[in-house]
Amino acid sequence: MKLPNLPSRYLLICVLSCWLSTIDAASAPAGLPQSNSVPGGVAVIALPASTAAPLVHFGNQRVMVKHAGTDNYAIVGLPLSTHVGKHTLKVRTTDGKIHQLKFQVTDKKYAAQHIHLDNERLVTPGAEDLIRIKEELALSQQTFRTWSERADIDMPFAMPVSGRLSSPFGLRRFFNGKPKQPHSGLDIAAPAGTDVIAPAAGIVATVGNFFYNGNTLFIDHGQGLVTMYCHLSRIDVKQGQVITRGQHIGEVGMTGRATGPHLHFSVSLNDARVEPGLFLPANHSPAPDPARP
Questions:
Q1: Where are the alpha helices (DSSP H) in the chain?
Q2: DSSP string, 175-209
Q3: CB burial class (10 A; 0-12, 13-18, 19+) of residue 192?
Q4: What phi and psi, each to the nearest 5 degrees, are found at residue 12?
Q5: Pairing of strands 202-210, 242-243
Q6: Domains of the chain, CATH where assigned
Q7: What would the pLDDT profile of 28-84 be if each residue is shown by its tens digit?
Q8: Which of 1, 20, 90, 129 would you label with 263, given CA atoms 20 to 30 Å apart?
Q9: Is beta strand 85-92 parallel, antiparallel or unpaired with respect to 98-105?
Q10: From its phi and psi, is residue 66 left (phi > 0), alpha (psi between -120 and 50) or beta?
Q11: Do 63 and 75 form a contact (C-beta atoms < 8 A)?
Q12: How far is the C-alpha of 111 from the C-alpha of 171, rounded, in Å?
């Protein structure tokens, strides 16, 4: 094919914008999460060679860049609302060049879950509750958007609690027949008082008691990676505290909207709630609860 007679700068932009590189789960280097480019998943994308980590954005969100082996990789969180099809990363390398890297998001169907709560107030809150919920939502969103520069992101994660999976990520949830937001984490059932540990190093970003989530804490692990722990019976760390992998942070409970003692564990990456299991070693994911289909 004969290329049109265009200035070299236009040819450069075309070549870079058409370059496609994604990493499948089997070939992802050690120290990176598992790659699964679906809504609610994580895309691990190899970046152009650069002497230092480039600046990467997905839409308006800055994206984690992690060095593994001899290359840099973009670790992109994909919200559950991500549309199926082609998407683009904007990459600015240290030499000032702009790369438009395209990648594909494939479909995934999530199951539905119907839950009955005796306390109707937790399904249809009153006016005063709604004011509180709005304030708590703003605080949670602000925390999930935390960005702190850190090159040594501690991955893969350790399991935060020993227990059985009672609700997987992504479920389309109905409380007393009313549709609610999809399940944004893993529910791990365990006896009340069971130790909860930090799955990786970080800093406690926020702690508090929330209407829906009960006693809750957030840990900032760096570069837009934030984890959340809900329904705790107690919290044993403070905001601003530096946390090490495996450190005790609290105990399992059933505070907030919960039908039994469990830990709700969420992982947020570039302000997208994603499948926590992608950050856990494959052989360390919680086992399914035999009492549930």
A1: 8-17, 127-144
A2: ETTEE-PPP-SEEEE--TT-EEE-SS-EEEEEEEE
A3: middle
A4: -60, -45
A5: antiparallel
A6: 8-105 (2.60.40.1590), 112-288 (2.70.70.10)
A7: 677 899 999 999 999 999 998 776 889 999 999 999 999 988 889 999 999 999 999
A8: 129
A9: antiparallel
A10: beta
A11: yes
A12: 5
For the entire predicted model, the pTM comes to 0.86
State how far the Cα of 186 lies from the Cα of 277, in Å rounded to an integer: 8
Cα separation, 228 vs 6, in Å, equals 51
Q: At 196, list the tokens.
A: 């909860």
DSSP class of residue 30?
A: T
Residue that has been written with the tokens 């107030």 in this structure:
121
| 269 vs 62: CA distance, rounded Å | 10
Q: State the sign of the Cα–Cα–Cα–Cα dihedral 218, 221, 224, 226.
A: negative
CA end-to-end distance (rounded Å), the chain: 56
Residue whose tokens read 């059985």: 164
Residue 272: enclosing H or E segment and its boundaries?
strand 272-274
Please report, as a single letter, which amino acid is at residue 262.
H
Structure tokens at 288: 């399914």
> In this structure, are residues 204 and 238 in contact, taking their beta carbons and an 8 Å threshold?
yes
